[in-house]
UniProtKB/TrEMBL annotation:
Keywords: S-adenosyl-L-methionine. It holds the Pfam family SAM_HAT_C. This is SAM-dependent chlorinase/fluorinase. Residues 3-150 form the S-adenosyl-l-methionine hydroxide adenosyltransferase N-terminal domain.
Length: 252
């Protein structure tokens, strides 16, 4: 049984979530606790950046087998009226807040079905990852169906949108900036030619190394989205751009 974790928590809070899961499964028939494999997708998601977390989850889940349980927590609304969810899609399960975080990934696997989790009275109002989502994941790992955790609901959606054709080229949104400073766009195909951004030519390339050192380029990343990069450089810094900025790519 694989359980993944994704959060903006940093280093030590995820260990508490794992401890809760293992404690709740300890002694269950079939030694379930001993059969759990934890995979940490990321815990360095920018603080409270739901869209960044959603992109990281979307980019990862297709590499996991059916039966995987994903716990994802980027949750600026923790403790408020926002709902807690378990979502089932494509044979995989997701537990997390109802703020759109889970939905792009779930939708990429199939047709998501969401159920609301009712937090127990003793749950912390500031750490639902430990007190709500980890216990829900333990129940699912023990064989409890998601539908038993609460009523079916329609979840909050999150959509990265699509790049739009303009008179001069394409208008796109930066949906994620990775640690290399690459600007990942809501564009799932590579333009047919070199483009211009802020008056700078972007070389259409298959690999980063096709560009000269410090040459800007546009390529199709391993995640399936077009990205603007600088060979051995940082495109975010060079173009003074960040996630959620809208840009215009001009045809040459």
């Amino acid at each position: 049984m694989i359980i993944t974790l994704l959060s903006d928590f940093g280093s030590f809070y995820p260990a508490q979530m794992k401890g809760v899961i293992l404690s709740r499964l300890q002694g269950k028939s079939g030694n379930i606790a001993g059969k759990i494999t934890f995979v940490d997708i990321a815990h360095d998601i920018p603080a409270q950046d739901v869209r960044a977390g959603a992109f990281a989850l979307l980019s990862t889940v297709r590499f996991f087998p059916p039966g995987t349980i994903h716990i994802a927590v980027v949750d600026p609304g923790v403790g408020t009226a926002r709902r807690s969810l378990v979502v089932e899609s494509g044979g995989q399960m997701f537990a997390g807040p109802d703020n759109g975080l889970l939905i792009p990934a779930a939708r990429s696997l199939g047709r998501p079905v969401a159920y609301e989790i009712t937090p127990h009275p003793g749950a912390s109002s500031t750490f639902h990852g430990r007190d709500v989502f980890a216990p829900a994941a333990a129940l699912i790992a023990a064989g409890q169906p998601p539908a038993s955790l609460g009523p079916r609901v329609r979840p909050v959606d999150l959509d990265f949108g699509e790049a739009k054709k303009t008179a001069h080229g394409l208008e796109a949104t930066i949906i994620y900036v990775d640690r290399f400073g690459n600007l990942i766009l809501n564009l799932q195909r590579l333009p047919a030619q070199d483009m211009m951004l802020k008056g700078v030519r972007l070389k259409r390339a298959r690999t980063y190394a096709e560009g000269r050192r410090i040459e800007p380029l546009i390529t199709l990343g391993s995640h399936g989205f077009a990205e603007i990069a600088i060979n051995q450089g940082n495109a975010s810094e060079a173009f003074c751009l960040k996630a959620q900025d809208r840009i215009e790519l001009e045809e040459i």
